[in-house]
Structures are given as C-alpha cells and as structure tokens.
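Minimal example, chain plus flavin-adenine dinucleotide.
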Amino acid sequence: MELFTSTTAWFDDEHQLFAEVVKRFFADQLAPRIDDFVEQGVVDRDFWLAAGEAGLMGGSVPEQYGGSGGGRGFDAVVLYEQGQIGDSSWGYGIQSIVIHYILKYGTDEQRSNWLPQLVSGDVIGALAMSEPGCGTDVQSIKTTAIKDGNQYRVSGSKMFITNGGSADLVVLATKTDSAERAKGVSLILVDTRETEGFRRGKNLAKLGLHGNDTAELFFDNAKVPLTNLLGAEEGQGFYQLMRQLPWERLLIAITALGAMDLALEQTLDYVKARRAFDQRIMDFQNTRFKLAEMKTKTEILRSFVNDCISRLEDDRLSAERASMAKYWGSETQNEVMNECLQLYGGYGYMMEYPIARLYADARVQMIYGGTNEIMKELIARSIDD
Ligand SMILES: Cc1cc2nc3c(=O)[nH]c(=O)nc-3n(C[C@H](O)[C@H](O)[C@H](O)COP(=O)(O)OP(=O)(O)OC[C@H]3O[C@@H](n4cnc5c(N)ncnc54)[C@H](O)[C@@H]3O)c2cc1C
C-alpha cells in the first residue's frame, strides 16, 4: 500500500523517489532489527546514525542545516513507511517534532548548532511536557526554571518521555513564572550530555511500544545557560506548543495508517491460508464483511490524512482538523487491530504473530499527543463559537 493516491496534491516525483529509498532502507536496516530493539527496550545509536546517513531525517530541513530542503511531506513519508513495516521503536516522530520547534523558534545559533546534529542522528531529541502530577493540563506544570546570573536553575521531573532514556537534547517545558498559567510557560533546550543535576529514571515498563526507551527525567537544580531559552522571550512556551501540536497530532494519524495497511495485508494472507469447516476463513461472510469494513475505514483515513498533509504543506492545517485526524485515526486504528486480531483466533494472541504487537502498540495512540477526549473538546470548541 502507499500513503498517497494518484489524486494526492502534495505528493510529487521527488516524494516518490524518497519513498523508495525509505522503503529499501527500512527493509534492509530496520525490519531485521525490530525484534532486537523490542527485546532490549531501546533503539541502538548506530541505527539513528544510519538513518541520518541515508537522509531520512533531513527531508524537511533547509540545506544550510544539513537537510534536503523539502516540506513536511518528506517526514510524512518516513512515518508512514515506518508504520507499514511494523516498527514502533524508533522515536523519529519526536525527532521530527523537535527539529520543527528549533527550526521555527530557535535563534540562528541554536539552529546552526542543533539541526545538523538532529538530521545526522548524532543527537537524539525528546520533548518533555508531561509530569507525574499533570499531563493534559500543561499550563499547570510544576517544573521551574529560575534565573540565576547567566543560567537557569531547573528543578522538577518529567514523566513518560519518549526517547527519554537516550535523548541528548530535551525540549523542556518549564515555568519561568510560577504565578502565571499559560503565560508562565517557557521552553528550554537542555543538553543532557553536559547538564549537571540532570538524571534519567529507568525505562518504563509499558503495555506496548516495548522498543522505545520511554523514561522519567529528573532535574535537580540543573544549570542551563540562559541562551538555551527557545525563542526571543520567556512566557512563549505554551503558545509555541499549541502551534506545533497539529504536526504531532497529524503524525500520529500517519503512523496509524501505516500500521493499519500492514495489519490488513497480513490478516488477508492469514485468512486466505487458514481453514475451518472445509473452507478458508476468508470465505465466511463475517470475515468478508469485517475486511470490507476495515478496508473502507482505512481508505477514508488515507484520504483525510492526505488532505491534512496538503493543508500542512500550505500552512493551512487548523488545530481542529489535526485533532480530527488524531482522534479518528487512532480510534480507527484500534478498531482495525482488534478486528484483525479476532480473525487470527488464538494465534492472534500470541506474540510471535505481529498482529499481537500491532494491537498492543495501537492503544497508546488514543492517549499521547493529547488524549482523544481533549481532541473532541478542541473539535467541539471549533463548532461552538
Ligand atoms: C508511551 C507514552 C509516551 C509518551 N510520550 C510523551 C512525550 O514524549 N512527551 C510528553 O510530554 N508526554 C508524553 N506522554 C504523556 C502523554 O502525552 C500523557 O499521558 C497524556 O497527555 C495524558 O496525560 P496524563 O497521563 O497525565 O492523563 P490525565 O491528564 O491525568 O488524564 C486522565 C484522564 O482524564 C481525561 N481528562 C483530563 N482532562 C480532561 C478534560 N478537560 N475533559 C475531559 N477529559 C479529561 C483524559 O482524557 C484521560 O482520559 C507519553 C505517554 C505515554 C503513555
């Protein structure tokens, strides 16, 4: 399956060539290692470097920073192909998000310093908003960054951080003014390799996404230079987050689509091969109807996602549309994984069948990037004005 369709506006010959490179790279370098990553709970650094070398992470980064100067359609291609090969370990989605924070809000120095290293895979990025006491209500975070001479003193902890076990660069949501809610939030770039007072917790044991090193991060009076503030002034963090969240939400829908295409392809092979009552499982009307329903939902998602990517490329993707893609994409993904698993019977519950992992990995898509309840709230607000 392909992410694009012949009527897709944003997808041109360059995306086509890029998609072929990405597909080949994943088939050669990722597919054979997925089980190892899952087993060890982290993606090896040499894989990040190989992905950088192959040009996977620079598609939407200007050439002056080591990228190839395209739009986010190139990132969409990578994320879709990653979903379609059945990998949920490599935290490229977050890497892309971090890249776009720095591209959009970074100073010249921050861009020149960080972007080439993020594109090459020398630096692994993380975005840390959630805390043990608060996830959805970002305005009430407790991590503080207090000015002290030419430094911030950062204190607090962050919970559930994707790539947290290995991240070299953390885009950290802090309060530079605890008396304020949204207006008190500032984003700070933390170089974990040289920050005294920074510590990681161990990898968190999760229901799915076993190959990603999701971790808790601790800051104990950690010293960070004032020049690491993202953006020109303090207090802009919440607005920066809100403006970048549509990409985080759309990319969840893109990976959902890739995983749904894979699940359908594999389930189809299975029900054609497996027999009961002297016929193929495929021949039962229930199977045919279930597959027809799932195929229809997948194609509808593909059209919507492609429309959202076109809008994003033209800077027209609204927060509510991105929320619709995230909410409906992740919910449909979970329905499809559930129905596909059922068609495998008992084998679907066995971890040696990829559908079991796809099922477990799908669940969190309805939670992170803003829960689906919050997506519905945002959509509702847009129609109640
Ligand atoms: C595997 C994984 C990876 C993650 N990666 C990251 C990451 O890289 N960076 C990061 O910052 N965070 C990350 N998160 C955190 C994730 O974004 C949060 O878990 C999510 O935003 C929900 O926050 P919470 O868990 O604190 O739930 P809570 O905010 O406590 O919500 C609990 C329940 O209440 C509901 N609820 C809350 N407020 C409302 C409301 N106003 N209206 C209706 N219902 C409401 C929620 O929808 C949810 O069902 C990750 C989480 C997981 C599980």
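The chain has eleven helices and nine strands. The pocket of flavin-adenine dinucleotide is lined by residues 94, 127-130, 134-136, 160-162, 206, 209, 214, 364, 367-368, 370-371, 373-374, 377 (CB under 6 Å).
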